[in-house]
Write the structure tokens for this entry.
Amino acid sequence: MAVVLWLLLGLAGCGSNPPAPIEDRGAAGSVDRSGRYTVARGDTLYSIAFRFGLDYRRLAAANGIAPPYTIYPGQELDLKARAAPAPRPVASAPARTAQEAPRAAPAKPAASPAPAPAPRPAAGAAPEARVSSWRWPAAGKVSRRFSLTVHKGIDIAGAKGDPVRASAAGRVVYAGAGIAGYGQLLIVRHNARYLSAYGHNDRLLVGEGEHVAAGQRIATRGSSGTDSVKLHFEIRRDGKPVDPLSLLPKR
């Protein structure tokens, strides 16, 4: 009788809590008691910072990770990034060469050297200028508004397959479904301070590392990771969520 009761309880538990669909590209990494996160397959520094509400620059600085912020499965990251100040962009000094070593002043004035070419931005770097304007990422009614404590973005209702567009120009820094609660998710970095996120998509049309233009179609609306068709849209400044309606144009 005890065995039969145990089986019935087990079946009831399975009925009320069906297994979650396997849709992510890698299991989420784990966090130990000391606040260290073990990187999982599919993670990016940006997705980890997004998941824990951190500024990716602080997270990188706290762990000695330089651009382009490459991380590896099994690597441990200290999540206590709040204690590390975000680095400020500084002009890098030109590298000293053997010809630039100190030497005695010449008897005659030396000819002025040709001016060095202006440094070019690193390949793949997103523009650091302020986002001049934001665009609505999708048509439709706002079905749920921003709340810093329980809902860190807005939901925009619509039909499956509707286009999802980049709210501003930038570079895709995460594309996948490895962050619980967001389904098929895109994160776009617009500059050093701003990221935008697009969740619950049906299909992702761009991949990590791709540059996108403002208004470019980047996904199709869906219901991945949720129970209804909608776009979940977030804007984060220095890792912290801000109300998208305070930045999007009125409509």
Q: What stands out?
A: The longest helix spans residues 2-16. Confidence is low (pLDDT under 50) at residues 1-26, 89-106, 111-127. DSSP finds three helices and 13 strands in the chain.
